[in-house]
Give the backbone structure.
Amino acid sequence: MHTSASHVARLAVLVLLSVLFTGCASLFTPDCARFEEDRKQTDYTPRFDRSTAKTRKLAAEMRPLSRNVLAAAPVYRIEPETGPARRCTHFTLRKELYLQRSDRARTLIVEETREIFTEGGKRVATKVVNLSEQLANPGYYSAQELLPIPEATPAGKYRVVSRLTYRTKPKAKPALLARATLDFEVPPKKTR
C-alpha cells in the first residue's frame, strides 16, 4: 500500500514537471474568446460598501464641513488591486473615498466619471455612473472596479482619470468633489 501511494505521488510530480517543461501555455494564457463573451454580460458598475468603523475613525479626524458647503470628499483614491494589466483579462482597481454631506444635501445627485487616456493624451474610454443610491449617506466607502483589457488593446501606458461630482438638480452643472488618477501599462504582445 505504501509503495502505491509513493508511486502515485511520483507520477503526479512527473506529470506536473512535464506540463511545466513542455511550455503548456494554455494553462497560463487567457482565453480571449471566452473573455469577450463574458464581457458582454458583465456589469461594470462599481459597488461601494460603507465601513462603519472607518467612518467613525475618519469622522473624528476630519474637519467638519463649512456651513455653506453641501458635500466634500477629502479622501478619494484609486489603486491597482491586481498585478499588471494583461490582454483578455480584467485589471482590477480598488477605490476608497470618504464622503462628507451636509444635512441640507439629502437629495444630491452623485456621479463618477471614469476616463482612460493613452500616453499621448487620446481618450479611449469614458464611463459615467450615478452613485446617488450607493453614496446616500456620509461615510467611508470602498469598491472594486473591473477594467476590461480586450485582446486588441495596443501596448503602451495608460492613465485612468476618475472624477467624483455632485449636482443639486438633474440639469444643474456638476460640482467637482474629488479627482483621482492611476497609471498602468499594457505590455507588448508576446511572440512565439
About this structure: Residues 11-28 have pLDDT under 50 and may be disordered. The radius of gyration is 23 Å. Residues 2-21 form the longest helix (20 residues).
